[in-house]
Design a protein that fits this description.
heterodimer; A: mainly alpha; Recoverin, domain 1; two-stranded antiparallel ribbon; two-stranded antiparallel sheet; B: Na+/H+ antiporter like fold; 35 helices; globular; potassium:proton antiporter activity (chain B); transport (chain B); ion transport (chain B)
């Protein structure tokens, strides 16, 4: 945590680059952005994220910000939340969205896929019990649809329920009336989104160029 | 099958011969518009002549006036022939699975052309540029634009534009220059073609034809990105080609020496003006259509017409301003699709969709057939082996080089690079088609001596690409294992995840400070939702925009359908009320849920639905409310059906059938009145018979029968209760006399004997059991819990009547009957 106390030079970059797969230039750009967000402090806190203007329109802002403070996303097998993150964590979380390298074996593809889906799954599974329960799912869907303006809260709830029902019918098959579907496990999640080409979609272009001045 | 096909060919052929033998020289199909005018003039003169002659010889009973109808007749006939050709071709699935339809249609054209040739010794029909560009092409392109997957298109817009603009220029320039070089080298003998003319030829050959591409690629389901790259390119580069062609055409007529730097710069500028101007015209018309459909609610029948007419007008306007007409109509279609789909009535949307497809498919068929027919003409066949073969070679080779080079550049910037096999297919999918041919025919013979050679070469290239490449495309796709399009049946979860995931991407871009696709898209979406939709969409339509909601809606519909099917299987929808089968997750006491279900069924979102909702950690009551709502609708339909069949043969009068603007069937007040009166009379009769001591047959009520019958009052209540019981749904309203005068006889809740006696059925049973059948177990258990405002349901549950529910034969209490009779009589007399 807070591994990079001093302003990072190349050696620290190479460490990070190895860990995350970003190029030096990209890390440099991200570091600049980090400084900009944290007002030249060493760590980022939640209110720093809340200050980002463009993010204000995002319906699932809370989930995304939480994802940055979630130990599960730091590749460290940790759990729970943290209060502030250093640059390293910032970059590690970002690296979930790195485009895959051009030449990947099937195995690697599967691995990146799993990682990316795990990230999404963690965004749903807030209490970290390995299951997206209905309550959790409802919460996310409500947030997700809250900005659309036309759908009411009740509808969002119904939609979440319908989705859950659908999931239950797909992953469990026929259920007895008194059976109870607890929630989506990660394995189910993987299976459900089989056709979702996440490895080629959950990616962001990280430019080598510095565009931070354009963003608020 | 094949034999039948041949027979049809010959049949067609013979009919054709009859027509062709009659003198039809010249432009039959050529200029419809012009000849329409001529036609009307000549018909006038015909009539006046006719009038004169009839003075002399008397009135002819019948006369053969071929010239009177010649042009439209031929047009219609040719359309018919093309369609029949398609019919025959499509009947042979094993052939079309190997050879693409477009290729077969061209071959069909060859045969037809051969017949005409044999009959006439001269080719009288051919595809002329006017017909092609004004009457056949627009609808195909409009269809393409209208059905364009916008998101996919704009995501790949960069790549598409690079290929469409730079790729086309490259194709044109390289082909022209290489041919010129070859001529200089003496490979083609003696030809009178200059460099500029070669470039002109190159530019007309450069366009990948959307019609041909769609025809081939819709049968080979390649993945989305590859498809949009080929298809988008073919659409846009048509515009580019036409522009290039016009520029070079102007250069040719200007003559070599007069061209200086200024002219070339003007040419380049005009290129951009024409392309962007055309797109702009399209956008303007698209917005206009969207605005118009906001307020066409009252003229729903001709609503779809606006799209076609305005689309066509955008094409013509662009043509008039010498802008790119093709680009104009493409963007018109792309721009308006979202808004008109939201604004218009569902029926109109379907109509537009079908009509669009019908027009596009029809003209595509005609285009290919005529491409084939045009070949059978001795005039255009000027053979020059060197020229033709070299053109073919260069077209193919440069296409490959261009695609690979441009994709190589693009891949350095693309997040998901195009793979090698994709590039091969993209290159191989460079089919030339009718646009090239149309442009070639438009060449001016006075300026270009070798026009016929060029037309001939164009045709050969077209045949080569459409037929040979078309046939080999599918095996190639198989062999290279090109990623195919996935069958997409989106689940709600996927939709939601997708949505969530897009937001996540945007957020990450925001946080990391990158300005990428997602950033742009979110900004555009924000703008679009806040401004564009606000202006262009009906307020009521805006709500339905959400895709997630759409899927949700679909799911609900599916559920409802399943319930109906299940109901039909079991012979009733009773099981819906049997909570065991539907409430998958709920662990509730039977009776409670039973009440709730019924409450939901009876009073629309009544107060009951909120009273006993326990916070149970499970999937939802609300979900079931949704299901119930769907079921309720389904049940209403079912009940209607039942009523229709058994109760009353209503005399539906389609009074407005001849009206062009109204569709509704007649819902007359009188009809309702009549139903009421009939039923009342029926009841009265049965009462009197009971009074006279005619013992009603003891009904043995079977369980299923009872169930079946229960639906009727219940379903009826859906629609009728709302209208007739408008206000007094209150718990204790005994609505014997209703101001509207129309009472639903099926729904006389308080006429129920149980109610009047105020004896709970389980107590009253001992006294009444002479004719009462024992209540079902559930009814006995449930009834005491029924709250007072559900009294209307009482007859529903304890109903022991036979299917003929309105004859209350098995009510024993005569006293009651008297009161009822009085009431009924008083009602009838009013």
């Amino acid at each position: 945590m807070g591994a990079l106390q001093s302003s990072p030079g190349r050696p620290e970059y190479s460490d990070l680059a190895e860990k995350t797969g970003f190029s030096f230039e990209q890390i440099g750009v991200l570091h600049k952005r980090f400084k900009q967000l944290s007002h030249n402090e060493e760590t980022l806190r939640r209110d720093h994220f809340n200050e980002i203007d463009d993010l204000a329109f995002n319906p699932i802002r809370a989930q995304i910000i939480e994802a940055f403070f979630d130990r599960r996303n730091f590749h460290q097998n940790g759990e729970g939340k943290v209060q502030e993150i250093g640059f390293e964590e910032f970059v590690v979380v970002m690296s979930h969205f790195r485009p895959p390298s051009a030449h990947m074996t099937e195995e690697q593809r599967g691995k990146t896929r799993r990682e990316k889906l795990r990230f999404l799954f963690n965004m749903h599974d807030t209490d970290n019990d390995g299951i997206i329960t209905l309550e959790e799912y409802r919460h996310v869907v409500e947030e997700l649809l809250s900005r659309s303006g036309t759908l009411e809260k009740e509808t969002a709830k119904c939609i979440a329920d319908a989705a859950m029902l659908e999931v239950a019918s797909i992953s469990v098959g026929h259920m007895e009336p008194d059976e109870f579907y607890e929630g989506i496990t990660f394995e189910h999640f993987l299976k459900l989104l089989e056709r979702f080409e996440i490895e080629s979609r959950m990616i962001i272009r990280f430019l080598n160029m510095d565009t931070t001045t354009l963003c608020k | 099958m094949l034999r039948c096909g041949y027979a049809l060919f010959w049949l067609l052929g013979s009919v054709l011969l009859i027509c062709v033998v009659s003198p039809v020289k010249g432009e039959a199909v050529v200029t419809r518009e012009g000849s329409h005018l001529k036609l009307s003039e000549s018909s006038h003169s015909n009539e006046s002549q006719h009038g004169h002659s009839s003075n002399i010889t008397g009135i002819p009973i019948i006369s053969f006036k071929w010239h009177h109808v010649e042009t439209p007749y031929l047009v219609a006939f040719w359309v018919l022939v093309s369609f029949l050709g398609k019919l025959v071709i499509e009947a042979n699935h094993h052939v079309t699975s190997v050879i693409p339809e477009s290729a077969l249609l061209i071959c069909f054209g060859f045969i037809l052309g051969g017949m005409i040739w044999a009959a006439d010794k001269v080719q009288t029909f051919r595809l002329t540029p006017t017909v092609f560009f004004f009457y056949l092409l627009p609808q195909v392109i409009l269809d393409a634009g209208y059905h364009m997957p916008n998101k996919l298109f704009f995501t790949n817009l960069g790549g598409i534009l690079v290929h469409a603009v730079i790729g086309t220029c490259w194709n044109a320039a390289s082909l022209g220059l290489s041919l010129w070089g070859c001529q200089m080298g003496g490979a083609m003998g003696d030809l009178d073609i200059g460099l500029l003319q070669y470039l002109l030829f190159g530019s007309l050959m450069a366009a990948v034809d959307p019609v041909a591409v769609i025809a081939v690629f819709e049968q080979v389901h390649v993945n989305d990105v590859l498809f949009i790259m080929v298809f988008g390119e073919s659409l846009l580069n048509d515009g580019v080609t036409v522009v290039l062609f016009n520029v070079f055409d102007a250069f040719v007529s200007l003559g070599g020496p007069k061209i200086d730097a200024a002219e070339i710069i003007k040419g380049i500028v005009s290129f951009f003006v024409v392309a962007f101007g055309g797109s702009l015209v399209g956008l303007v018309f698209g917005l206009l259509i969207s605005l118009l459909t906001r307020c066409t609610k009252n003229i729903q029948i001709i609503e779809p017409g606006f799209i076609f007419v305005l689309g066509y007008l955008s094409y013509l306007t662009a043509e008039m301003l010498s802008l790119s007409a093709i680009l104009s109509i493409v963007f018109c279609g792309m721009c308006c699709q979202k808004y008109i789909n939201a604004n218009m009535d569902e029926n109109s949307v379907q109509t537009v969709r079908y009509a669009m497809k019908a027009f596009a498919n029809g003209s595509e068929t005609i285009i290919f057939v005529f491409l084939g027919i045009s070949a059978i003409d001795k005039v255009i066949w000027v053979w020059n082996t060197g020229f033709i073969l070299l053109t073919l070679l260069f077209v193919l080779v440069y296409r490959f080089i261009g695609v690979f080079f441009l994709t190589w550049i693009l891949n350095r910037y693309r997040l998901v690079p195009l793979e090698f096999v994709d590039q091969v297919i993209m290159s191989y999918g460079g089919l030339r088609g009718a646009v090239a041919y149309g442009l070639a025919v438009m060449l001016d013979e006075n300026k270009i001596k070798e026009k016929n050679l060029m037309v001939c070469t164009t045709l050969i290239v077209v045949y080569f690409t459409v037929i040979l490449q078309g046939i080999t495309m599918k095996p190639l796709v198989m062999w290279l294992k090109v990623k195919r399009a996935a069958v997409t049946e989106v689940s709600l979860l996927e939709k939601l995840t997708n949505k969530m995931f897009n937001h996540t991407l945007v957020a990450i871009e925001d946080i990391s400070g990158q300005i990428g696709h997602n950033y742009m898209r979110s900004k555009w979406k924000y703008f679009e939702e806040n401004w564009m939709s606000w202006i262009l969409m009906k307020p009521s339509a805006r709500k339905k925009q959400d895709q997630v909601f759409d899927v949700f809606h679909q799911l609900n519909l599916k559920d409802a359908m399943e319930y109906v099917t299940e109901g039909e299987r079991r012979g009733s929808l009773e099981f819906v009320r049997n909570e065991n089968s539907i409430i998958d997750f709920k662990k509730k006491s039977e009776s409670e849920s039973f009440d709730i279900n019924n409450a939901n069924m009876s009073n629309d979102h009544g107060a009951m639905s909120t009273t006993s909702r326990d916070p149970i950690p499970s999937v939802s009551l609300e979900m079931h409310e949704q299901i119930m709502k769907a079921v309720r609708e389904a049940e209403a339909i079912n009940a209607h059906h039942l009523l229709d069949q058994h109760l009353y043969k209503s005399r539906k009068q389609h009074r407005h059938r001849f009206s062009r603007s109204h569709f509704d069937i007649n819902r007359d007040e009188k009809e309702v009145q009549e139903i009421f009166q009939r039923t009342m009379r029926n009841r009265l009769k049965s009462f009197t018979s009971a009074k006279m001591g005619v013992k009603p047959p003891k009904t043995i009520v079977k369980h299923t029968q009872k169930e079946q019958q229960q639906k009727m009052p219940n379903g009826k209540s859906m629609d009728k209760a709302k209208t007739s019981y408008s206000g007094d749904e209150g718990p204790n309203s005994v609505s014997f006399v209703h101001p509207a005068g129309i009472e639903n006889p099926a729904f006389m809740p308080d006429l129920d004997p149980m109610d009047l006696l105020q004896i709970p059925p389980w107590l009253g049973e001992s006294e009444l059991d002479s004719s009462m059948v024992a209540l079902s177990h559930r009814a006995q258990v449930d009834l005491p819990r029924t709250p007072s405002n559900l009294r209307r349901l009482a007859p529903l549950r304890i109903s022991t009547r036979s299917t003929d529910s309105f004859t209350l034969e098995n009510i024993p209490d005569t006293q009651q009957m008297d009161t009822q009779e009085e009431f009924l009589q008083s009602k009838l007399t009013t």
